[in-house]
Design goal:
Layout (H helix, E strand, L loop, with lengths): L1 H10 L7 H13 L16 H11 L4 H21 L8 E4 L8 H15 L5 E2 L8 E4 L5 E7 L12 E2 L2 E2 L9 H4 L19 H10 L12 E7 L7 E7 L17 H13 L10 E5 L5 E5 L29 H9 L2 H11 L4 H19 L4 H8 L9 H19 L5 H21 L13
Antiparallel strand pairs: 1-7, 2-3, 3-4, 4-8, 5-6, 7-8, 9-10
Helix pairs in contact: 3-4, 10-11, 11-12, 11-14, 13-14
Length: 450
């Protein structure tokens, strides 16, 4: 009996019992009393496997039964080890497959640098702003990218800055460079019903896609990635944007010394994507070697909405917006193709059809405005509400065009959605020309030296 009991017992303990202790345990087992441990109890707590062996000994199982128990215990021990295997400690970042065709060389290099940096530096949460925004660094510790995860937008339970029933961070952000990238963003679907929480990263990428052919606007390179870091509970999907070295935000010094063309490119972008959240905090400035400032637009989570009722642009109050467009800028605006833009966005992003229509409407406004020799300021005012409760001139024209286009389609029994949209946009363009032709010219400008 002793020969059959000792092998399974010795294989399931951390130290082998002496012959004297084995005989003592056998005697206690036969009496039905607990078996002693080969190590002091204060130093060793029996595992689940040992407790089961003790129980088997106390009940005086037969050798065949003990062998079955041992096999079962071995299986349990193996399962326990598999369940307690720690997660890999190596961070991972991966470019989402669809974006491999976009600037493959640049994105591959940026992601490799981020991957190397994550081995030395954790993602740095930007303390300002309302959404989860992270600075990612290279191995030397220099910021090279900005990551905005979808599951940390607005009222998401994963947003480290969101507090139910109140705001835990400033929406505007401070004037420090670290806060610039988090000064905007989708806060709550209850506040902005035309923006769903989790979609801001797609709009960040959309602004880049619409700029990538000519880089006229200067939107930083942006893509969608999957990123995991050991301290996070799960993998995160979001937008990854190249970090732009800068000297602050435009509201740090005011607009008076900005070049006209730099202001124009920001305004044209905002009208192209119908950006509803352009302010001085999400325009980066950089002083060049010649002392001239260049501007970089960021934070486009509030662009491509599904309605026209929330447009406002800080540059409307800047004097440069009242300066006529130069010939090069006019040629660029004329080259914008809404149909190509639609194909681009639908190929890579889940942008709503309503948002695509808004983009076509605002692009049409921009093109017709240039055709009618309007300034950026005049075009922007058509798209903006002077009073929050009253519709803008653009909204009025859109409703008129929809009514007219519906009548035309009904009379001609047009039911194809593409033809209906084509009729609507044609009618809207005619309405824009009619309204714009009646607008007085822009007021004379003061002498400008920029």
């Amino acid at each position: 009996m002793a020969a059959t009991l000792s092998p399974p017992y010795s294989t399931t303990t951390t130290s082998v019992a002496s012959p004297l202790l084995q005989r003592h345990n056998l005697q206690r087992a036969r009496r039905g009393t607990p078996v002693s441990s080969p190590t002091p109890s204060r130093l060793h707590k029996p595992s689940q496997s040992q407790s089961l062996v003790h129980t088997a000994l106390c009940r005086a199982f037969s050798p065949s039964q003990l062998r079955k128990v041992k096999d079962a215990l071995d299986e349990i021990s193996s399962t326990e080890k598999q369940a307690t295997v720690p997660k890999p400690v190596t961070p991972s970042i991966e470019l989402i497959e669809d974006f491999h065709t976009l600037e493959p060389g640049f994105f591959a290099e940026l992601i490799n640098k981020v991957r190397e940096g994550l081995l030395f530096h954790a993602p740095e949460l930007c303390v300002e702003g309302v959404n989860g925004t992270y600075f990612l660094k290279n191995k030397e510790g220099r910021k090279i990218a900005v990551f905005k995860p979808q599951d940390e937008e607005g009222s998401s339970e994963h947003n480290p800055k969101y507090k139910k029933g109140g705001r835990s961070a400033s929406a505007r952000g401070s004037r420090r460079t670290s806060s610039i990238y988090a000064s905007g963003g989708v806060t709550s679907s209850k506040v902005r019903k035309d923006f769903q929480v989790g979609e801001a990263s797609y709009r960040e990428v959309a602004a880049y896609l619409l700029d990538r052919k000519h880089h006229f606007y200067g939107v930083p390179n942006t893509c969608m990635v999957k990123l995991w870091y050991p301290t996070w509970k799960s993998e995160k999907v979001g937008s990854l944007q190249e970090f732009v070295m800068n000297d602050g935000a435009s509201w740090d010094i005011g607009p008076s010394i900005f070049p006209v063309k730099e202001v124009h490119k920001i305004g044209i972008l905002d009208l192209h994507i119908f950006n509803t959240d352009r302010h001085g905090g999400n325009i980066l400035l950089c002083e060049n070697d010649d002392g001239v400032y260049s501007l970089t637009p960021i934070d486009h989570g509030y662009s491509l909405p599904t309605s026209l009722d929330r447009a406002w642009f800080d540059w409307l109050t800047w004097p440069q917006s009242r300066v006529p467009f130069d010939d090069e800028t006019k040629r660029y605006i004329d080259s914008i193709d809404p149909e190509d833009d639609e194909k681009m966005l639908k190929t890579f992003l889940p942008i709503a059809d309503e948002s695509i229509v808004i983009m076509k409407i605002s692009t049409l406004l921009l093109k017709r405005g240039v055709h009618n020799n309007l300034t950026l300021s005049q075009i922007g005012m058509i798209a903006s509400r002077k009073v929050p409760e009253k519709p803008s001139l653009l909204e009025i024209m859109v409703e008129e065009a929809r009514t007219t286009a519906k009548g035309i389609c009904d009379r001609n029994s047009v039911t194809d959605p593409a033809e209906i949209e084509k009729t609507f946009l044609k009618t809207l363009g005619e309405s824009m020309d009619e309204h714009m032709s009646k607008m007085p010219p822009e007021s004379p400008q003061r002498s400008m030296t920029w």
